[in-house]
Amino acid sequence: MNHNDLIFKYLNNKLSHKEQLTLEKLILTDSAFKEELNFQKNLKKVTVKEDEANFRKLIQKIENQASSKTISKKLFIKWMAVASVIFLLGLSYMLIPQQKMSNETIFTSYFKPYKNVIAPIVRGENKQNEKTLAFMAYEKGNYETAVMRFTELYKDTKEPFYLFYKANALLQLERTEEAIPLLINHLKTKDTLTKKTNWYLALAYLKSNKTKKAKNLLKKIIDLKSYNYKKAEELIKKIK
Amino acid sequence: MNIEIIKKFIDNDPKKISKLYNSNRDSFLNFGKKYGLNYDELSDIYQESFIALRKHAIEGKLNTVKSTLKTYLFGIGKYKIYNELKNKKKHISYEINLHITDSVLPIEYEIEKEELTIEQQLLRTYFKKLGKKCKELLTLSFSRGLTNDEIVEMTNYANNSVVRSQKSRCIKTLKEMIKK
Fold this sequence. Notes:
The structure holds two protein chains of two kinds.
Chain A: H1 3-11, H2 17-29, H3 31-95, H4 103-110, H5 130-140, H6 143-157, H7 161-172, H8 176-187, H9 194-207, H10 211-224, H11 229-236
Chain B: H1 3-11, H2 14-33, H3 39-58, H4 69-87, H5 94-97, H6 118-129, H7 132-143, H8 148-154, H9 160-179
Helix pairs in contact in B: 2-3, 3-4, 7-9, 8-9
């Protein structure tokens, strides 16, 4: 383990017994290490202080807003109930045409699992091999089965397109957090489908509320005029 | 405790923090009333308790806690209320004498009194002079104790080696400032 990792673990109380011994030995024998450890210990202390001071400011601000609300709340509570209903009704009526949508809604309206272009299934003439079975499950919407089969097939063949289709199936199953790393890995491969991966990754980020990452990726798609860039232009306007 | 809630403290998104803060504030003020403290005292106590709660979340102390956020927060608050009453020299067994019955157990927490050493104070001055990016990154890594991979998850850094090298650049800048 390198020295920085050792120090990081020490600062976060995560050293194992063996690592603790290594650290103690280094403190005694390596003066540069000791100096670095000391520096980072101080830095931790300083950042904690600073971080807390900033958090305190934030809480102060929130509390000020809350207490000014509490005072006026009692007086206006009934009036507000009536007024806010009217206001919201009016507002939603006015805003409907250019309404911003929630990430969840955007995902649902834009996501569709990518079609099977790997193993076209023609009725009656397919050999029941593993690959066709996997894609048959995928096409029929048996995504759970598809995920299992794709996982096995990827293990055996290392064909990158399995990553892509497995991620698509996972997205459909709302297992977004599992899909994201697969798409990132798929991007690193030279598969012909990688041109399409960014689009699905952007949707996945959106679904898991990593809005900033989603936006950046959509911008990239638009700039490069890659797969679904027109949809990306339309979608980016709808993100909050 | 629910990991998502703990994460909210680590992510520190002002909107989410505000929501969390406000969602328990009124009921805490109500809860504290029966101890005979006034609105200002109780809202101070609530603020301090919330700050302590966040500290526990970041230090990982909540990971093994089984109670809900609300119970835990009220526990810290109750401890604070007792202290406040002690300061007011009300030497009584509060619950019995005030006829209070609730199931919240006070949770002790230490108020950190340790001041920064001169060396650390100096480091703090330099730290404040760093660019926004460095400050953010070092805060995530040192104050919140996030690994490089966790930092990639919640920021725009492309991968953990970018984080690693950016971090060492920031530390280097800081050290150069000190040498000058």
